[in-house]
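Bench log, entry 3. Co-assembly request; chain sequences pasted below exactly as received.
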Amino acid sequence: MKLYNKSVNCDNINKNLLNIRYAVRGPILERASQIERELQKGIEKPFDSVVRANIGDCHALGQKPITFIRQVVALAACPQLMTCPDIPADAKERAAEILADCTRGSVGAYSPSAGLSLVRGRVAEYLTARDGVPASPDDVLLGSGASDLIKSVLSMFVHEKDGKPSAVMIPIPQYPLFSGTLSELGLQQADYYLDEENQWALQPRELQRSWTVASETAHVRALVVINPGNPTGQVLDRQNIEEVIRFAYEHSLFLIADEVYQENIVSKPFYSFKKVMFEMGAPYSQMELASFATCSKGWAAECGLRAAFVELVGLRPEALAALRASRAVMQCPTVLGQCVLDCVMSPPAPGSASYEQFNIERSAIHRTLCERTSAAYQVFNTIPGYSCNPIDGSMFAYPRFDVPARAQRAALDSGVSPDEFYCMQLLEQTGVCVVPGTGFGQLPGTFHFRTTILHPADEFQHMLHSIAKFHQQFLEQYS
Amino acid sequence: MKLYNKSVNCDNINKNLLNIRYAVRGPILERASQIERELQKGIEKPFDSVVRANIGDCHALGQKPITFIRQVVALAACPQLMTCPDIPADAKERAAEILADCTRGSVGAYSPSAGLSLVRGRVAEYLTARDGVPASPDDVLLGSGASDLIKSVLSMFVHEKDGKPSAVMIPIPQYPLFSGTLSELGLQQADYYLDEENQWALQPRELQRSWTVASETAHVRALVVINPGNPTGQVLDRQNIEEVIRFAYEHSLFLIADEVYQENIVSKPFYSFKKVMFEMGAPYSQMELASFATCSKGWAAECGLRAAFVELVGLRPEALAALRASRAVMQCPTVLGQCVLDCVMSPPAPGSASYEQFNIERSAIHRTLCERTSAAYQVFNTIPGYSCNPIDGSMFAYPRFDVPARAQRAALDSGVSPDEFYCMQLLEQTGVCVVPGTGFGQLPGTFHFRTTILHPADEFQHMLHSIAKFHQQFLEQYS
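Structure output for the full assembly:
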């Protein structure tokens, strides 16, 4: 009998899949999960539990969900509960309103592939109010998380011309969804470095350098900006955004604005790319822009419920049609996720039955963000050998730290980068699981990690203290 | 000032996106929506309302959701309702059990990217019981609908060798998710025809013909089987499945079994590819298989809640790892969808508080399926010029009909295929929206449409009657 050869092996699998790296769920998380199992088995460690600081997942860090959102979702799923006296009238009205837009009143029916018309309308109202620029529900696509939508938009650029692929410019450091998705799609990644010495500013001359280098081997088609920054936490000022828009204009680049942390801001004002583009007027207001927002971030932080949207501005109709076609094959985003988005776009208004509780909950979340960003900034700037830029927004700190030469050699010997070596040691000795800077990118010779900062107060203090103590021991060991 | 060129146009957009066709949400649905708006505006038509029969969406056709599922989802979303006296104890226990597997008890936290461990365990138990073959939770990936997972699995095959792309064999007629996704991924589609004269049987000699033709220009890597058939409604018998497995073995093909309608079967027994493969023993039991199931179909039919799984059997570890990496970048499938899947894999057991109601609801759904398949089969075989194979499963009929030569010429003149011409006329004259066979594929010179059959009884009768009457007029007009 003929020998059976497996159809898929390392030599004939889609090479792009083999190139995907996604550090946020990478080897360090695997080891953290392993340690958790070891602890459960009673294996002794210098700590009692693992502190997961690898992923921006507020509920996993103990943040409580917004009551109104969950009530609306529950009623939309189970309208039988409409008679329940414990649920306020405005939550019932909201659920009824959404159900009226679902085919035959069931969230179990497919929605249009772009999302329910009601919810896209609410998104357009939110955007109009945010920017002072009219937005249309027809330019809005809902998705099962921003990642899903970002991948769809990036897929448009897969194209070779004269033997050169398309390239997409992304910041370094960046959120590895971008590098991972560019790898999967076979697009070339064109790095531009954020200026750590100047609070992670986005320098036009660095954009130009990156574009020039990439243009030698590729057609640069799009420019990704992450604002507020992930992992870097800066919020771009208006002038900087104008510079970026002018740069994109000069080079006919499609602007991809990852603005998912727009509601996680401590004090600086947030300017959307769309607002600035339109206020700059023609010809800038005619540029192509995809701007992303999500319910996984912001005060809702409903990561597990998968809800997001993209607003597409200035696309040629044929590009929009192609994008819509590829989304239609996947049917529709989760309808209960769409309910969440509806609540986030239009939360309880002052005077409504749910307002007081909503306001208390949302204020507490914002207060925690303010406290944590300030505490992380302070502590990371007092550990010798550490430095950290001010954190204006997002939910992360991205401190820089020194790694002694001996430790760098030890890392080299074990085949990992110095920051990976450092973070793995940190995990083994303290149980704190942060993601090495290699996963996000950093200037060669500099070392960072990304940590989430929204843990409960005592856990947060314990984490900062563990890091400080570990760093001292690490320096002693390798000096 | 420099002229701004849009970055994305017809010449430089990802060509694969331009090639996507997905008839289920195509031009006929667009026209149906337009007609609905015209009716709302009071424009006179020969009918009062549009009957949407284009998509397998049971809730949109009036099927009521399973109460137990919706109660569990509502409680998982809003645990505050655990005290609600209207919800039975077993639904509360189930929700509590799921929440215990969510990080810090919130469905708003990300799950592992493969899905909650509890739910994957339930899937493995279901599969073990179904097949009498042990299944492992580690081989199961959950997704936001089967489409999402099928796309991931197909993406593995994107690979060129010696200037030849990979090809994937698909049945004709097929569900256009496959043709659409192959287009998007740039994979070659290798058609094999189902044998309409023999109740849509899958003939090994036709597989061989298709493989031979495709192998001239491509490396054939995988074989898709849709069982129960969509749009064709046949259920493969065991011997036929064995033949297919032997064929795949001979050619080292990866088996892709779309088994999403496995719970929508009238009377014939369902054999999963995995069961048959394992019962055939080595070497067949070592072949590569991806088998898909979804909560959008079956008795749950929760299309809008987006829940599905794939079981991956016999993959090399490196292939599985690559697939996992590409899924991890997308974070995780919706956790509330995972709750639905948990309920479907393990519905209320006899003796539990929810069993009686569940059993009544599920039986009614099955009874409807039996009645409709039989009624559709009968009616479509009594209209002169129509014929329809017995419908063993799924939720569709795919009747064949004659189109007079004059009508074929009229179609040609208006630049559409005869079946598209026929279905558009049907829509304009009766309001019945079915999908032309061109969208699924058919033998050249034969004409079909796909219609869903799970409408409420009166609507269903009205639809069949409208089609019969329309066909008679059509023949008179064009004979």
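Chain A has 16 helices and 14 strands. Chain A has two domains: 15-62+359-478, 100-345.
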